[in-house]
Every structure is written in C-alpha cells, then in structure tokens.
Design a protein that fits this description.
single chain, alpha/beta, 6 strands
C-alpha cells in the first residue's frame, strides 16, 4: 500500500520564533530563498505524495497565496519558477477555527484522508540526508503497513 496523502499542520502561533512570527507565519520564514513550507511540500512530493492538506488558521492566507498561480509574475518571465510552485501537488487548505492543539488540527483532515494511510509532516526541524526522511518512512510503510514515526534527537 502506497501513501499518496499528507497533512501539514500549519495553524500554530509560531511563539518559539517570536518576534519574527508576529506578522509572518513561521511556515513562510525562508531558508535561503524558499519558505519552509515549500521544502515540506517538496519533500512530500519526492516521496510520491500527490495530495496534500495544509491546516491553517486566521492570518495564514499568505501560505495559500504562495501555492496559488501568479499570472503577474508569470508574465514577467518567472513562469517556470512560479508555476512550478503552484503545480507541485494537489494542495488543499482547511482552517482550524479554534486553537485546540495538534490532535484537533489533524482531526480536521478526517474527510480528506478517509480510510487511506497518510503522512503528517512538520517543518519544525531540518533533517539533512540523501533522501528526504518521509521517503524512508514511506518505503518502510510499503514493506510493513503499520504506523511509522520518524524522530530526531534534539
């Protein structure tokens, strides 16, 4: 069984990186020239994930804008760069209207994932390797379809 769906909880307040997140979601903080959330989506796509649900809340519309088409930039010869972002995967958004924690954010994905296996991806830490961490977990799931959890010692 192959994992084709992922949930990215992005509804938090970003309090660990204040004051940078006072006016910008932490998921949009750049690592070199890309926002963190783009790296997360690219990692999911590298693992064969085609459908991604991003759970947001109030004030995170900039994330939706990032993954949307941008005809103005495409017209300025940035076609490949900009269109590539909006075509990475089938990205859906849902809002967590009340801040009830991570479990509640993932529960918001219930109708999106149905009874299919899915990955939950976070952008709180970078794990550098030849292949993205979710690729390793997804391969292990294919061999033995049971819950897999990747952790990093901090």
């Amino acid at each position: 069984m192959k994992i084709t769906k992922a949930v990215i909880p992005a509804a938090g307040l970003g309090t660990r990186v204040l004051p940078a997140t006072k006016s910008m979601p932490k998921e949009m903080l750049p690592i070199v020239d890309k926002p963190t959330i783009q790296y997360i989506v690219e990692e999911a796509v590298a693992a064969g994930i085609t459908d991604i649900l991003i759970v947001t809340n109030r004030g995170k519309g900039i994330i939706e804008d990032h993954f949307d088409a941008s005809p103005e930039l495409e017209a300025l010869d940035f076609l490949e760069t900009v269109r590539g972002i909006s075509n990475l995967a089938n990205i859906t958004f849902i809002r967590q209207k009340e801040m009830k924690g991570l479990g509640h954010a993932i529960l918001k994905a219930k109708s999106f994932v149905g009874n299919e296996p899915f990955a939950v991806l976070f952008g709180d830490g970078a794990i550098v390797g030849e292949k993205p961490a979710i690729v390793h977990l997804s391969c292990q799931f294919t061999v033995n379809p049971a819950i897999k959890i990747g952790v990093k010692k901090v």
